[in-house]
Specification:
This protein is 33% helix and 27% strand. The chain has 148 residues and is α+β, with helices and mostly antiparallel strands. The chain has one domain: Gcn5-related N-acetyltransferase (GNAT) (Aminopeptidase, 3-Layer(aba) Sandwich), CATH 3.40.630. It has a 5-stranded mixed beta sheet. This is GNAT superfamily N-acetyltransferase. One of its GO terms (molecular function) is acyltransferase activity, transferring groups other than amino-acyl groups.
């Protein structure tokens, strides 16, 4: 199998990206995911939607935030990393991770971060293989309904 073509998504790719995001958020309606995705793109210029393509089919996706924090300086946060279930274990995730690491280096980032659901064991294995370590906990306090 040839390696995926990895690139910044075009507006025409946004619906396909939302189709992948459903796999991470199965309880969230697709229209709400699309609305949130478009809001992020409209309001946050430091967010980059990156896709992995086989031919013209989007098979992998990661949102990327590039920002600065007091404790670490410039960093790249990988958000909503997903590979379509029918294309997992084909090297798509590994190729996408390599692309993101190179992007982080090009952008002068000191580190990469990501969150993963605690029960997503397959992703944990991938992240550990890619050199990620668990440094802490991500605490959440809900302030309202998550379906708005």
């Amino acid at each position: 199998m040839s390696p995926p073509d990895i690139r910044l998504l075009e507006p025409d790719d946004h619906l396909a990206a939302t189709g992948l995001l459903v796999h991470l958020n199965p309880d969230c309606p697709t229209q709400l995911l699309l609305q949130r995705f478009r809001t992020i793109l409209d309001e946050h210029p430091h967010y980059l939607p990156i896709g992995a393509f086989l031919g013209d089919k989007l098979v992998g996706f990661a949102g990327v935030w590039i920002a600065t924090k007091i404790w670490c300086g410039r960093y790249l946060e990988i958000d909503n990393f997903v590979v379509h279930p029918s294309h997992r274990s084909e090297g798509i995730g590994t190729a996408l991770m390599a692309f993101l690491e190179e992007l982080a280096r090009e952008k002068g980032c000191n580190l990469q971060t990501l969150d993963s659901y605690t029960n997503n064991y397959a992703s944990h294995r991938l992240y550990h293989r890619q050199g990620f370590e668990i440094w802490g906990f991500h605490f959440v306090k809900t302030l309202g309904s998550l379906d708005r």
